[in-house]
Amino acid sequence: MTLKAFYVVTPKCVPQYSWLVEPDTAFNKRPEWKVDLILDSNDPKTPIVAQQIEDGFAAYKQSLKEANPKKTFRLADSTRYEFTTHNGAKVFKIKTRRYVSGTDMNGKPYNNTPPLLMDKYKTPITGEEREKYRGLGEGTIIQVRLRCAGYDHPAHGVGLTIQPDLIVFHNFVPYSKTQDEEATSLDGFEFESEEKDLAPSNLDNSSGGNTF
């Protein structure tokens, strides 16, 4: 018998690419709630979380082998967690996602519930209040309870899913488009005016690239 899901609680961390209220459906992808987590490698709790995930996955693989000792298993190519660098700092990055719906290994359809949201005072964030958390701005600090479950897919191999199960907001900064607009603004730069070459050869090739 293979192991069931296990849960891991992160230390305070920084969210990236969050879709916790409304699922991400960009590019006609399968709808999913998701958030990437950036954990500080200098936090003593970070290596503990990394080890808990590794140990849980190792236990799942062992349970597969015990159930089918003669079978050779293949690991999936992708990983959902790694030690890496972010803005020049060493971090532990976890990619989480939870599909809105799907079909299990037995062909049975299922529907998932969105991640639970809670403030730092242990108050659930529900109803219309959740709408404020559609976008998380720079400076947001959260903790996340992760639901981790192993899988043995006939096409992709053996891997680990990591879902965002409960998010606790220690500091919430609403996302503002002005953050990106300011980053791409050209205000403050000194430019010189350019006299355009209006020769026919340049005009003819002004769209579509150079020819030869």
Structure description:
The protein is 17% helix and 37% strand. The protein is α+β, with helices and mostly antiparallel strands and 212 residues long. The chain has one domain (6-176): Nucleic acid-binding proteins (OB fold (Dihydrolipoamide Acetyltransferase, E2P)), CATH 2.40.50.140. The strands form 3 sheets. The chain has a 4-stranded mixed beta sheet with strand order 1-9-10-8, with helices on one face. Strands 2-3-5-4 form a 4-stranded antiparallel beta sheet, covered by helices on one side. It has a two-stranded antiparallel ribbon with strand order 6-7. Strand 2 and strand 3 (32-40) form a beta hairpin. The radius of gyration is 23 Å and the shape is globular. The N and C termini lie far apart (67 Å).
